[in-house]
Every structure is written in C-alpha cells, then in structure tokens.
Amino acid sequence: MFTFSESFYNTGFSYTSGVAALKQYILDILNTDRGTRPYYPDYGCLIEKYKYSLLNLQTAQLIHSDVYYQIASMDNIQIVNTNYRLKVAEKKVELYFDLVYGQEPIGLHLTYSDGGFK
C-alpha cells in the first residue's frame, strides 16, 4: 500500500509506504464523512454522528465498533486483538488494534477526540 502525505516544510507531497501508509489510509477513511467524496459514495465512516454526543462508555463502545467494522472490511488486514480506553477527564477515547497486514504484524493506536481521529 502506498499513499501521499503532505509535509509543511516541503513544497510538495512525499511518497510513503508500508505501516505509515496503512495508518494514514485508515485515518483518512475514519476522518472522511461517508458520502462526501465525489464518485465514491461508500468511502468514509459514519463517526460524525458522535461528534456532539456525550462521551460515555456506551458512546466509546459504539465508536470502537464502527472503527472495528471499517478496519475489518479492508482487504488483506486481519484483526488479531483490540481494546479501547475511555478518558473522560481528557474527553477522548483511545483505541488499540493488533493487526496483521499481509504477513506483517502491526500495532495501531488511534485517538478519538473533538469529533475526529489522530
């Protein structure tokens, strides 16, 4: 998998591959609202609906299940283990995924806060 990532210090885009490209691709899908990309009506995620919801255990479980579904539906990715942690004081949910991409094991850590992923 290859992707482009923008660098603020360079005037163009840099070409990334491997684990960095996979993480960037997953973040791109999760931070794109479904139906907003022309010609790709199924691209993106429905996480926007949780933006103004109260961040409690039930919302954290729903966010985790939506992210799990998005990752599980990708080609050549197998989810081995997953976990999440709700941090109410910091108003964020931390998601942990142990993936296998092709033959390579990958540990993926995502943070949901303020309606988006980092």
Helix content: 10-25%
Strand order of the largest sheet: 3-4-5-6
The total of beta strands comes to: 6
Radius of gyration: 15 Å
CATH architecture label name: Roll
Low-confidence stretches: none
Order of SSEs: EEHHEEEE
Strand content: 35-45%
Continuous helix count: 2
What is the residue-averaged pLDDT?
87
- The CATH topology assignment is Nuclear Transport Factor 2, Chain: A
Question: If you had to describe this structure to a student in words, what would you say it looks like?
Answer:
- With 118 residues, the protein is an alpha+beta fold.
- It has a single domain (2-117), classed as Roll (Nuclear Transport Factor 2, Chain: A).
- The protein contains two helices and six strands.
- It has a four-stranded antiparallel sheet. It has a two-stranded antiparallel ribbon with strand order 1-2.
- Strand 4 and strand 5 (104-113) form a beta hairpin.
Secondary structure layout plus pairing:
Layout: E1 2-6, E2 13-17, H1 19-30, H2 57-72, E3 77-87, E4 92-101, E5 104-113, E6 116-117
Antiparallel strand pairs: 1-2, 3-4, 4-5, 5-6
What key phrases describe this protein's structure?
118 residues, alpha+beta, Nuclear Transport Factor 2, Chain: A, four-stranded antiparallel sheet, two-stranded antiparallel sheet, 2 helices, globular
In short:
The protein has 118 residues and is of the alpha+beta class. The protein contains 2 helices and 6 strands.
